[in-house]
Amino acid sequence: MTAIRHHDPVTPVGGGPPPRRSRWWWVGGAFLLLLVVVSAFILGRGGRTETPVAASPTVTVAAPLPASSVVVSGAPSAVGEDTANPDGCLGGPDPYTAIVPAQAAATLDAVGAAGFARAAVRYLLVQYPRPADYATVIPQVYVDPGPPLARMANPQQAPQEAPEGTTSKYVRPAETTYQVTVLGDRADVTVSVFLELDSPDGSVLDTVRLTQRLLLQVVDSHWRIADAPATDPAPPVGTAGFRYYPGGC
Fold it and tell me: Which end of the chain, N or C, is surrounded by fewer C-beta atoms within 10 Å?
């Protein structure tokens, strides 16, 4: 950056122009002053170039968590290495029966919210066959069961239905990820799982990655689902607070 300095003209005192020597002294003095200012500017910078540095993602390793404002994020870790890791198989391995036991076992902190949310996602997103006990389960796990029950009663048909007898199962549990934020009695959890569709002859039709955000609220000392809004795909682990579930199923 170049600084342009403006000097007001000096009006000489007395009659007639100043002597020529006096004028040259003024010019020389101004020139020396300019050299001093420029030299001080260069030395002050020290030759450094101000280059913006891209910020790297912040990764926070979870510690034991109270039921207060907290964000859990980090990298994969083995079962037992971190006491604050959620149980990725809370409620048991069967997605059709795990959700209610997981709700009963989930602690009222980030760990419990993440464990319950994975069981809820496994139940709500399983496709073939679909759970037959929605009418009894949804009122137990939702704050307001009316809207989800209405949606379940009128499901959107897939553009191309799978062959009759198709089954689905959750796979690649070590790659299941989550992000959780807890504030008081509310939690915001996003879970990403892999679902495999198997044809009646046992061949794999497709494997899809499903990501669902759940807004949870504590009701009667248990987590319940307040909303399940539209969800963007999960980013890579280590960004935006996403980490792996240890010991998922």
Answer: N
pLDDT confidence tier of residue 247, bands split at 50, 70 and 90? confident
What per-residue confidence (pLDDT) applies to 39?
34
CB atoms < 10 A from the CB of 44, how many?
A: 7
For the stretch 140-176, pLDDT in tens is: 999 999 999 998 888 777 777 788 899 999 999 999 9
How far, in whole angstroms, is CA 116 from its chain's centroid? 18
Question: Which residues have C-beta within 8 Å of that of residue 95, sequence separation ≥ 6?
Answer: 119, 122, 123, 126, 170
Percent helix, strand and coil across the chain, each to the nearest 5? 25, 20, 50
Pairwise CA distance, residues 178 & 194, whole Å: 13
Give which of 105, 57, 108, 114 is closest to 85, Cα–Cα. Answer: 114
Closest CA to 189 of 132, 104, 112: 112
Distance CA 110, CA 85 (A): 9
User: pLDDT tens for residues 181-203?
Assistant: 999 999 999 999 999 999 999 99
Q: Find, among 108, 96, 107, 189, the residue nearest to 136 by Cα.
A: 96
